[in-house]
Amino acid sequence: MATLNPGDEVLIPDPCWPIYLPQLQIAGAIGVRYPLDPDNDWLPDLGRLEEQVTPRTRMLLINTPGNPTGAVFPRPIIAGLLDFAHRHDLYLLSDECYDQLIFEGEHLSPACLLSRQEFEDGRFIGIYTFSKTYAMTGWRIGYVVAGTQLLKTIVDVLNANLTNISTPIQRAAQAALTGPQECVATMRESYRRRRDLVLEQLKASGRYSYIPHGAFYTLINVAGRNGESSGGRQFALDLIRVSNVTVTPGQGFGMISDEYVRISLAASEHDLRLGVQAICQLADR
């Protein structure tokens, strides 16, 4: 609401966190999906982005590390996306809520490639949350990073829609940011260990397709060996009925992930081992 008018178009990844679309609808904006490539570690194709720009395009939304893919965009991709947004005079909205959950490589915010003046020009918006890094999901608190003038506009919109977050929650968030960070490293290592366990099982079952380098999710292709598939949604329903294992159908995140299901690395190693085994067994039937 601080950046878009009704009818404006926003480029969003496919697959992506499904709540992006209703959030855009509240502002009267239109989500236009750009594909992430499952054959290239779920990274975007900059050439395909160019094809989707119209006179109504106002914003590019990116998410790295990504949900549901766990993909981490490398520096050349981030630089290319930043240049793309600049050339088309777009806001760049960067969802970085998993920024501290990186297993290999680095998380690079587009803001790090901007000069102070470029940042203050107000075309970059960074979104962060305490839900992932500090496991404070139920506390419902996060923060925005943007240029001074744009931030004032965002604050005006927020003030018209909600009152303040309670003081104890704000104090807890402050303590999380300024306190010891060993707990973050411990949690990150637990996710990495679980990620590796899942990948080992997928490789042993012939269903390995990529390495999620961040966040705490992975997508698993559940198409049959002959390429036939009833889709992730039907597979998820069958999996509950046959094995009492729950996954999230890929089609909830976009069309490209229709033949996939998403699993969360927040489960225990024991549950992940049994769950992935059940997924592979059902997919191989």
Automatic annotation (TrEMBL):
<dbReference type="InterPro" id="IPR015421">
    <property type="entry name" value="PyrdxlP-dep_Trfase_major"/>
</dbReference>
<feature type="domain" description="Aminotransferase class I/classII large">
    <location>
        <begin position="2"/>
        <end position="278"/>
    </location>
</feature>
<keyword id="KW-0663">Pyridoxal phosphate</keyword>
<dbReference type="GO" id="GO:0008483">
    <property type="term" value="F:transaminase activity"/>
</dbReference>
<dbReference type="InterPro" id="IPR050596">
    <property type="entry name" value="AspAT/PAT-like"/>
</dbReference>
<dbReference type="GO" id="GO:0006520">
    <property type="term" value="P:amino acid metabolic process"/>
</dbReference>
<keyword id="KW-0032">Aminotransferase</keyword>
<dbReference type="InterPro" id="IPR004839">
    <property type="entry name" value="Aminotransferase_I/II_large"/>
</dbReference>
<protein>
    <recommendedName>
        <fullName>Aminotransferase class I/classII large domain-containing protein</fullName>
    </recommendedName>
</protein>
<dbReference type="Pfam" id="PF00155">
    <property type="entry name" value="Aminotran_1_2"/>
</dbReference>
<keyword id="KW-0808">Transferase</keyword>
<comment type="similarity">
    <text>Belongs to the class-I pyridoxal-phosphate-dependent aminotransferase family.</text>
</comment>
<dbReference type="GO" id="GO:0030170">
    <property type="term" value="F:pyridoxal phosphate binding"/>
</dbReference>
<dbReference type="InterPro" id="IPR015424">
    <property type="entry name" value="PyrdxlP-dep_Trfase"/>
</dbReference>
